[in-house]
Amino acid sequence: MNGPKIIVEPPGPNSRKIAEKDSALLMQSFARWYPLVAKRAHGVWVEDVDGNVYLDFNSGIGVTNTGHCHPKVVKAIKEQAERLLHYSLTDFLYEEPVKLAEKLVSITPGRFPKKVFYTNSGTESIEAAIKTARGHFRGTRPYIIAFAGSFHGRTYGSLSLTSSKPVQRRHLGPLLPGVFHAPYPYCYRCPFRQKYPECNLWCVDFIEEWMLKKYVPPEEVAAFVVEPIAGEGGYIVPPPEFFKRLRELADKYGILLVVDEVQSGFGRTGKWFAIEHFGVEPDIIAVAKGIASGLPLGAIIGRAEVMDLPPGSHASTFGGNPVSCAAALATIEVIEEEKLLDNATRVGEYAMKRLRELQEEIPYIGDVRGKGLMIGVELIARDGSPNPKLLQKTLEIAFKKGLLVIGAGVSTIRIAPPLIITQQEMETGLRILEESLREALKEV
């Protein structure tokens, strides 16, 4: 396709009917950006129930990295579904999870023995990482240090680490004890009001000089849990030296480094995992989303000596489901065969260049940041403060023009299309986004 096709102004009559039933029948504990009612999708295109076709800058929220319904992934799912749907990996064995584990061990950073534990989602992967980190130290290190502004999930353990929006925690306390938060290295809006690089990475020094020396005994900290690029918090990219300094601090005190690659993994940033941009090898990596192109699957991959929970201490009935594992194996093969890491880098660099050119024209674009096809465009008001109204209006207009794109943080446009997107398709989306932003500025 050359571009979106809008037959009836969204949301159309069929979409409105389904949205009404959705509101009446489903608990509305999630907030939708706009009333898209998806019917089918292929590649980078999504069709709604009214026949409108949209260009997808969301990838099902960072999931369909190989594009929607990639033929090779669909074929793998069909073939596996005809052989075996389920028999519970926690009580018995089958081949598919072993084959996938071999692949995961080979593509994750670190040339040391590793083991894998399967889950069904990102939040379950974080839960497994928390239990593995604490359990490895056999109760001697009960504390976890996470980072303010990060998102790790919404179940009680993962929610205790999450701190990107107050609504995620409101009325739900008390949460998991023993979790502390350090400021995330958000250089555009530094919480310490300092400037990089003159700050000398005070955000890392703060952890040691204040947290570990004032109120968190370092010998009782099991892990740092951190996103290599803060996703939900605003697509925030840390300074290049941040993770090396954090790794040094972890090693100094015997603390594990757990990296949440749920949104940034499987080629999203132009490398298999975003942490590779920073030259650091984590002890545990938590993954999900893009691992299986849309089927529910997650995992943690960690140093073999750390992945030592005793039998019976942790399990998952559906974790490592053979159909999901088959989809994941096909997903990895597609990324390799179609050189999607290279494409994400190339098209992502093009998009960043275009967006920075646009930033020079529109003063309401405060910051453009990202790696590969994980790009954030922070919108601001005249005084430089976040501008959530401008964000929402821009996204709504883009939706009506045939572009699916959402936000992150307080007022950041989140650009995360399938890794198969071409430069021409990216240009089409950026043109719609620019038109939408300019129109939104007239209304807000």
UniProtKB/TrEMBL annotation:
Cofactors demanded by this protein: pyridoxal 5'-phosphate
Keyword Transferase: yes
UniProtKB keywords: Aminotransferase, Pyridoxal phosphate, Transferase
Catalytic activity: L-ornithine + 2-oxoglutarate = L-glutamate 5-semialdehyde + L-glutamate
Enzyme class, spelled out: transferase
EC number: 2.6.1.13
GO molecular function: identical protein binding; ornithine aminotransferase activity; pyridoxal phosphate binding
Pfam families: Aminotran_3 (PF00202)
Protein family: Belongs to the class-III pyridoxal-phosphate-dependent aminotransferase family.
Name of this chain's protein: Ornithine aminotransferase
Organism: Thermofilum pendens (strain DSM 2475 / Hrk 5)
